[in-house]
Amino acid sequence: MSRFKTVIGGFFIGLANIIPGVSGGTMAVIFGIYDVLIKGILKLLKAPIQTIKTLYPILIGLVVGIVFGVFVIDFGYQKVPLLTTLIFIGLIVGGIQSIYQKIKTRDLKHTIVFFIAFSIMVILPILNSNLGVHSGWIYYVMIFLVGAIAAGTMIAPGISGSLVLLLLGYYVHVVGLVKTAIESVFGLDMVSLSSVLPAIVLFLLGALIGLIIFSKMISIVIDRYESLFYAAVLGLLISSPISILTILNQNKPLTSFGLMEITFGIILGLGAAYASYAIIKNSEN
C-alpha cells in the first residue's frame, strides 16, 4: 500500500476514534493497515526509531484525523448526526466482505464466536455508567487507567474506544481536554494548556501502555487463532451499525430526523461503502 493510502487509513482511524460506536481498529482492518499497526506497536520499545519510520504515515493521518474529528466531525455529529453516522456505517459495511474472506473455517465453533461477539457489541450501548471522577488524586489514577483501556479497545477491531470512554463516563471530558489543548497551542494560551497538561500526559502514558499490552495480546490471538479472531471481528463488525444507531437514538430519537437528512445520509453512506470496498480491493490487487 502506498504512503498516501496509509495516511488516509490513519486519518479514518483518527476520525473513527472520535465517534462513539465506530471502531478505529475496524478502520485499520478495512484499509489494510492493521497488521502493520500491531507489529509496529510491538516493536516500539525495542526499536523506537525504526518503528516511527514505519508508522509515521499512519501517525500523521491519525493526528490529522483526531484534530479534524474533534472539531469538524464532532460539529457534524451535533448538527447532522444521522448523516454523519450513516457515512461511518457505510465505511464499515464496505469492509464486511474482506473480513468474511479471512475466515478460513466455517464450523460451529466459529459460529458461536461470531454470535458472542455480535451480542457483546449490541449489549454494550444499552449499558449506562456514571463512573467519571474529575477531581482529586483518584481522578489522575482513573485518567491513566481510562487511557490504557481506551487505547487498547481502540485497536481492537469492532470495539469502539470512544464507546468504552462513554460507558466509563469520560468521553465528553477527554474530548474537552483535547479541544482545550489544541486551542491553547494555536492560541498560545499557556495558562489553559498547563491546566490540562497533567491529565493529558497521564492519559497518553496510559494509552501507550495499553497499546503495547493489547497489541501483544491481539498478536498472540491472531497467530494462534486467526480464523476464530476474524469470526469475532465479523460479529463485531456486523453488529456495529446496530450499536451506533442505538447510541444515536439515545441522544436523539431516530424518528425525529427529516427526510432530507435521511436521504442524503443514505446516499453518502452508500458512497462511503463503495469507497471503502474499492480501496480494499485495490489494496488486495
What secondary-structure arrangement, pairings included, does this model have?
Layout: H1 3-16, H2 24-30, H3 34-42, H4 48-79, H5 81-93, H6 96-101, H7 108-123, H8 136-154, H9 161-168, H10 171-187, H11 190-251, H12 259-284
Helix pairs in contact: 1-2, 1-4, 3-4, 3-11, 4-5, 5-11, 5-12, 7-11, 8-9, 8-11, 10-11
Keywords:
285 residues; mainly alpha; globular
What does this protein structure show overall?
This protein has one domain. The mean pLDDT is 78. The chain has 285 residues and is mainly alpha-helical. Helix content is 80%, strand content 0%. Helix 7 packs across helix 11 and helix 10 (171-187) packs antiparallel against helix 11 (190-251). The longest helix is centred in the last third of the chain and has 62 residues, at 190-251. It contains 12 helices and no strands. The radius of gyration is 19 Å and the shape is globular.
Q: What is shown here, in short?
A:
With 285 residues, the chain is mainly α. Helices cover 80% and strands 0% of the residues.
